[in-house]
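Now for our target.
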Amino acid sequence: MRETGAKGADGSAGRPADPALEEAVRRAQAGDEEAFRLLYRAVQPGLLRYVTLLVGDDGEDVAAETWLHIARDLGRFRGDLDGFRGWAATIARHRALDHLRQRDRRPRIDGRETAVERLAELPAREDTAASALESTATAAALALISRLPPDQAEAVLLRAVMGLDVASAALVLGKRPGAVRTAAYRGLRRLAELLEGDPEPSSSNATRPIDAERR
């Protein structure tokens, strides 16, 4: 069932149906460039946040690769707006993982570790962070989410930032819906603790990529 704005069991808000965007999916599939631009403007902000948490500073490059793939294969896509968001997220995740594998095979030239780092576990509180993500500056929100364990960070991004329903997020991650719902719930509880204790992370605490392959 498509979500229509009510909060789910994980505390994250679904996105209300948008008839214009639903129509844009159909028009873009038929080759309408203006409809494709409309979808890009609607989906790109969340998608960029997602891949940035996967690959760090290379997020814009990976997002661009993702949209090239989407533009190439859109004629073969079948589904509605929710399906399009999930399809885009799946492509983005695959492009990000390929990017990380290629990057980790490159020789180290500055002594820094090239593999994505594991994030530390943090204490959790109540589930109060979903709405706060909407009003937190992008850089600060990403810095906070990057401090979550990888499974929770991805679940929060897909549910609360990209607006995917549980079933779509589960398909992207290759997990059971219940596992994604639990990870998003726990991640939002952890974010609530971080928002109470450190609402404005300093710029020196740069966003760290999450390890999408380490589960």
About this structure: The first helix runs from residue 19 to 29. Confidence is low (pLDDT under 50) at residues 1-7, 107-132, 199-205. Residues 19-197 form a domain with the Rna Polymerase Sigma Factor; Chain: A fold (CATH 1.10.1740.10). DSSP finds nine helices and no strands in the chain.
